[in-house]
Amino acid sequence: MRDLSRKMAYSAFSALMIFAFASATFAFGGMGGATAPQAEDPMDKLDPTAPVAVVNEVPITKADFDRELSAYLVNLQASTGGQHAGSIVPNDQIKSDVMKTLVEKELIYQEGVKTPPADLDARVDENYQAVMARMPSEDDFKKALAKDNLTEESLRELLKRSVILNNYIENVLGKDVEVSEEEVKKFYDDNPQYFNVPETVHASHILITPEGDSEEAKEAAKKKIEGLREDIAKGADFAEVAKENSSCPSAPNGGDLGTFERGKMVPEFEEAAFSLKPGELSNVVETKFGYHIIKAQEVTEAGVMPIEDVHDKIAAFLRRNAVNEKLGEKIEELRAAGSVEIVTPHLKKQ
Q1: CA–CA distance, 106 with 54 (Å, rounded to integer)
Q2: What angle do CA 70, 10, 117 make, to 5 degrees?
Q3: With a threshold of 0.70, does the pTM exceed it?
Q4: Beta pairing class for 285-287 and 256-261
Q5: What percent helix, strand, coil does the chain show, rounded to 5?
Q6: HSE on the CB side for 7, CA within 13 Å?
Q7: Domains contained in the chain, CATH given
Q8: In this structure, what are the phi and psi dihedrals at residue 30, rounded to the nearest 5 degrees?
Q9: pLDDT per residue over 159-190, tens digit each?
Q10: What are phi and psi of 106, to 5 degrees?
Q11: CA dihedral 273, 277, 278, 283 (to 10 degrees)
């Protein structure tokens, strides 16, 4: 199911939808210099107010581009679990993708502003307050605005645009998009890989680490944990024994390791943990970390999620894909009927 959730998060909507709010607020989200130094680019010399593209006689400025680029990088890092933080260099392909997104957003905004939501001002106020709430102080808020070449008024305008974009995509393009029960069932039947539930165990443990590498130290550690196991078998509280004796960082939580599936622990520990029944205590288990006693709290067998449990997520995923398809068609229609000029030559390939 996690794979489906990931697909829903990063594939179901185009970049246009993903960035609608992010580009308005990225300066307040802690970009924190996540990119490596870039190669020299003609765009770097442009004034923030200089146009980089013109859509139906409306200019897109260098400042607009820089905000969108940062939003793109934030989302790229999020989609890869942050593993590329600090190393992403925005090359021409990335910049071209950002330019494409900016043009598409402007085309859709110009269409969406014709049918704004009735509660537009209230939504903008709500989003504005959410942005301010993320800042430690008003002074930090003002510094973030200045860093991004924004004023309070221009930030409100960006938030207004994002509300109009989202409203148009969701409530105008998506107004009549419905997903049938047959479509949900077909997706469920055709994609069992998304709904497999792995075997898991919720376990706690007590770890005694030898005080040195000598055989005497190992024997002392083993003797200690055997004694602790006897105490627990006679009625001592497992969690309290763990808190008082375990060498593991989980000790303050009574040795609770949470729920895990196969492949997450060292083999000896995993084999013992998955052989237990709920409430059962293991024999002493030796691993490279030392000596363990494991207690299983809950065991879940491998299986498949019933369709009832995932019905709504599947329906939402399919609806988003359908809206996304309509969005792509609308963008092409607006491009054909309008005028788009990319001022920066090396990014015209978008």
Answers
A1: 9
A2: 80
A3: no
A4: unpaired
A5: 55, 15, 30
A6: 14
A7: 2-188+307-347 (1.10.4030.10), 199-301 (3.10.50.40)
A8: 80, 50
A9: 999 999 999 999 999 999 999 999 999 999 99
A10: -65, -40
A11: -50
